[in-house]
């Protein structure tokens, strides 16, 4: 679809693994998209696909109906909101900010409140589905904030995702995402354990995966990440460093509410072990390397 200025303008901030694909899908849907990233090459790449370059978060939002951020962690989102040339001092024209990064729910609620004080509505809308979901505009988007702000953001979400749910007030999107992440982490750990036991027992791991996918042990992780785990492929998709960031946020929230999460604590420590071996930039499926070490076996 060609660009349709009537459709609206998006200021998109953060053009990494996920943000690049999401911004491309907004362009494909016909939106005008102004892009900003601290990496200039990331901006140039998107400009090559029809986006317009911005020199700061404020510049990206200047003419935008909505400013969207897709950044690594809480400090980067705070930088984009509170920093010099940030959205607090220079709000987007449409006075709507959507943070699709996974960050602290506490920080997210603070950002909502501070932006509300200057007349900007905010939505926290983290995503699940990985780089493939981002590329295929098939993300699951979990949104927190006021209903009218969600309604304004929803058409933009439709260009990036398929399961789009308003899950509650400010910060609720982040909390739902943290629930998602603890399941992902523990599920990867369960797959590592099944593969380690199968390998030590001389079972064909491809066949094991196929059998498991046909029964009650089937999962998104086994389906999408299982092949890389069996092949010993550590290539990044969702980095171990980012998974550790999410598991830390899960545990901060759980401790603040006195909710014991023993399985999350265990898998978090295994990811810490992986990072201590210099593996933080590997994809999170590469938790299998911890199991390689524990079983003293190289990946097959
Ligand atoms: P990434 O590190 O690949 O991309 C982040 C981008 O933000 C980079 O291009 C970086 O240069 C840019 N950036 C950093 N600081 C900035 C700043 N101050 N101003 C402007 N740009 C800045 O990360 P990603 O994998 O795209 O993940 C983004 C978010 O989405 C994270 O919160 C992550 O947890 C979440 N997420 C990732 C995946 C995944 O599979 N990669 C899946 C779901 C959710």
From TrEMBL:
Transmembrane segments: none annotated. This is 2-hydroxy-3-oxopropionate reductase. SUPFAM superfamilies: 6-phosphogluconate dehydrogenase C-terminal domain-like, NAD(P)-binding Rossmann-fold domains. Keywords: NAD, Oxidoreductase. PANTHER family: 3-HYDROXYISOBUTYRATE DEHYDROGENASE-LIKE 1, MITOCHONDRIAL-RELATED. Residues 171-291 form the 3-hydroxyisobutyrate dehydrogenase-like NAD-binding domain. It comes from the Bacteria. InterPro entries: 3-OH-isobutyrate_DH-rel_CS (IPR002204), 6-PGluconate_DH-like_C_sf (IPR008927), 6PGD_dom2 (IPR013328), 6PGDH_NADP-bd (IPR006115), HIBADH-like_NADP-bd (IPR029154), HIBADH-related (IPR015815), NAD(P)-bd_dom_sf (IPR036291). GO terms for biological process: organic acid catabolic process. GO terms for molecular function: NAD binding; NADP binding; oxidoreductase activity. Residues 9-168 form the 6-phosphogluconate dehydrogenase NADP-binding domain. The active site is at residue 177. The keyword NAD applies. Pfam families: NAD_binding_11, NAD_binding_2. Belongs to the HIBADH-related family.
């Amino acid at each position: 679809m060609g660009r349709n200025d009537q459709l609206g303008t998006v200021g998109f901030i953060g053009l990494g693994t996920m943000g690049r694909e999401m911004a491309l899908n907004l362009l494909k849907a016909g939106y005008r998209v102004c892009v900003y990233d601290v990496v200039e090459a990331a901006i140039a790449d998107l400009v090559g696909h029809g986006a317009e370059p911005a020199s700061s978060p404020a510049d990206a939002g200047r003419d935008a109906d909505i400013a969207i951020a897709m950044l690594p962690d809480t400090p980067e989102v705070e930088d984009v909101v509170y920093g010099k040339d940030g959205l607090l001092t220079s709000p987007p024209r449409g006075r709507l900010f959507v943070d699709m990064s996974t960050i602290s729910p506490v920080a997210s609620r603070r950002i909502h409140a501070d932006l509300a004080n200057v007349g900007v509505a905010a939505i926290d809308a983290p995503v699940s589905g990985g780089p493939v979901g981002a590329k295929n505009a098939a993300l699951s988007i979990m949104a927190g904030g006021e209903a009218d702000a969600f309604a304004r953001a929803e058409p933009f979400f439709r260009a990036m995702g398929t399961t789009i749910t308003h899950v509650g007030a400010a910060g609720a999107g982040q909390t739902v995402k943290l629930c998602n992440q603890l399941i992902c982490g523990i599920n990867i750990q369960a797959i590592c354990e099944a593969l380690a036991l199968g390998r030590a027992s001389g079972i064909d791991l491809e066949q094991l995966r196929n059998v498991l996918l046909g029964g009650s042990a089937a999962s998104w992780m086994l389906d999408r990440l299982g092949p890389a785990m069996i092949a010993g492929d550590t290539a990044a998709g969702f980095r171990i460093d980012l998974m550790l960031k999410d598991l830390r946020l899960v545990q901060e929230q759980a401790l603040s509410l006195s909710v014991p999460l023993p399985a999350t604590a265990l898998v978090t420590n295994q990811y810490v072990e992986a990072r201590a071996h210099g593996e933080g930039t590997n994809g999170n499926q590469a938790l299998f390397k911890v199991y390689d070490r524990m079983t003293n076996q190289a990946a097959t």
